Structure prediction request, 199 residues.
Amino acid sequence: MDEYLASFKNKKKNFKNFEKKKINKNISKYITKMLLAIIFFLISLIFTNYSDNNLLLYKQYVFTESLPFTKLKGWYEELFGEVLPKEDGTKTVFNGKLVYKNIEDYKDGERLTVNNKSLVNNISSGIVVYSGTKDDYGNTVIVQGVDGVDIWYGNLENIAVNLYDYIEAETIIGETKDEYLYLVIKKDNEFIKYEDYQS
Prediction:
């Protein structure tokens, strides 16, 4: 019995040490990220205060250009690792491709005929940059992919993602309102067909 109690206390002590190390590691990661954000802010502040031309350039870029958040996130993760820890234990039920019966051209994209109230999964990882109603597409979610491709999913209801969520590939976005899914794939202001994007 004494051996059992001693081994239990040892395991408990080892577990506490492991938890402390894990917490210390996470704290140091967050401190590093906070310091990087402060450094970036200070550099931006110095740059804009250096001259009026720099301030105008900065304002022009910030107010007129679309910032590629997903590309920045990919670059950041290559250098410093994950921004947020990944949740373990979740499994996807999709294979990364949308299941449809028929596909035809529709406006700037395509209309996929699917099962009524079909679940729609995200094709590639990215950030939700729009969630709302668009003319001719109904309730629409736009995901800016890590690869720089914007994917519009239209005619949705029961949307399961929020604006500015980072979502992995195969994450459920919502379900179709009826038997149609409107899909627009756009890269560098050019529209791409779904089959071409998948290949």
In short: Residues 2-65 form one domain. Residues 88-94 have pLDDT under 50 and may be disordered. The chain has four helices and eleven strands.
